[in-house]
Protein: CP-type G domain-containing protein
Amino acid sequence: MPGFYKRVKKIIDDSDIILEVLDARFPELCRNKALEQYAAKKGKPIILVLNKADLLSSKKLRLKFEYPAVLLSAKKRHGLKKLRALLGITKSKLKLKNPKIGVIGYPNTGKSSLINALAGRKAARTSIKAGFTRGEQWIRIAKDMLLIDAPGVMPIRKEDEFLYVLTCSKNPYELEDPELNAIKLIQLFKEKSPEALQAYCKFPIKSLSPEQILEQLEIKRKKLLKGEKPDLETMAKILLHDYFSAKLNLKI
Structure:
């Protein structure tokens, strides 16, 4: 954790404008208030980038924040004009000639995809695997703007493992308790997006508990015979991976 803070604070120190990339489905969970306060003390303006808007049912920004915010999909390249406009406004307001833009955020919130979109090319590597981006590089996104890419920020406590799942910031096969996290995810889907869960399961789920749904998914996957014991841990990992890869979309 100390190394994480040292690295990210250096990015903030070296930058003129900070883009904090959040998962649009759970923006508050993705924010790092300590780093935001650090940036504010340094006089660095923050723009909240709510990425993965293509996974939302609504394309309007419903939440209000204390910082300028933009809803976009780096994957679909939607919302980039609004972000560029915000960068231009901030640049003019601060009278910056050649601003350096810092990027912070959890792994898999789409930092690299955002950089690709802003640069108009494959400027940084992307992958479904959490924490794929390595090293640090500067990328020119305009004649007078440089963007810095940094390793993903992950200030989540070990005991809050479900937050890793929600933000897709840890490989599902590396979780300590995939079964418990899968059950929590199913419960969230039942509450927030039952239609998406129903489409994924392809069997009636309304009267089933999350535990029963996970078991039925495994029975369906392996076509178990009566008396055979389902492998719930493996099914849990498959479900979590499908969520990470957006095969199971939470539409909120």
